[in-house]
Amino acid sequence: MIGRLNHVAIAVRDIAKAAAVYRDTLGAEVSAATAQPEHGVTTVFITLPNTKIELLEPYGEGSPIAKFLERNPDGGIHHLCYEVDDIRAARDALKGQGARVLGDGEPKTGAHGKPVLFLHPKDFCGTLVELEQA
Ligand code: CO
Which of 30, 49, 59, 115 could connect to 107 by a Cys-Cys bridge, CB 3.0–4.6 Å? Predict the structure, then answer.
């Protein structure tokens, strides 16, 4: 069902500092920071030869990553994003196997402008999983 690893998301308190680590220390190709008010985060994308890293910094009040950063003050891996061909078909198949889809279960437009869904970490080895329609 799942295809390519689209990105690994890392939540951080200071996205400029984190972007500098990837750009200057690790020598990666790093995008400009983009505020995404509708998602409550600011994002930076790092393009690697085989996948991407998504840096996430809280944006505004009630950011969905605020609690994660309280538990992980140094930052940490927040979720993995896998590509699927048909997000609704994938959702229905996963729900049929007892997996929990977060929110109202309807795909939302994600940070890349494509439909995404999140799956409960307790059903996926303790890891928050994002599905993105490729
Ligand atoms: Co993501």
Answer: 115
* Ligand 1 center–CA 50 separation, angstroms: 16
> What phi and psi, each to the nearest 5 degrees, are found at residue 66?
-60, -45
Domain extents for the chain? 2-133
pTM over 0.85: yes
Rounded to the nearest angstrom, the distance between the alpha carbon of 43 and the centre of ligand 1 is 9
Torsion region of 96: left, alpha or beta (phi above 0 gives left; psi -120 to 50 gives alpha):
alpha
Give the Å distance between the CA of 24 and the centre of ligand 1: 23
Whether domain 2-133 has CATH 3.40.50.2300: no
pLDDT digits (tens, 9 = 90+) for 109-120: 987 889 999 999
pLDDT tens for each residue of 69-118: 999 999 999 999 999 999 999 999 999 999 999 999 999 998 788 999 99
Separation of alpha carbons 113 and 116, rounded Å: 9
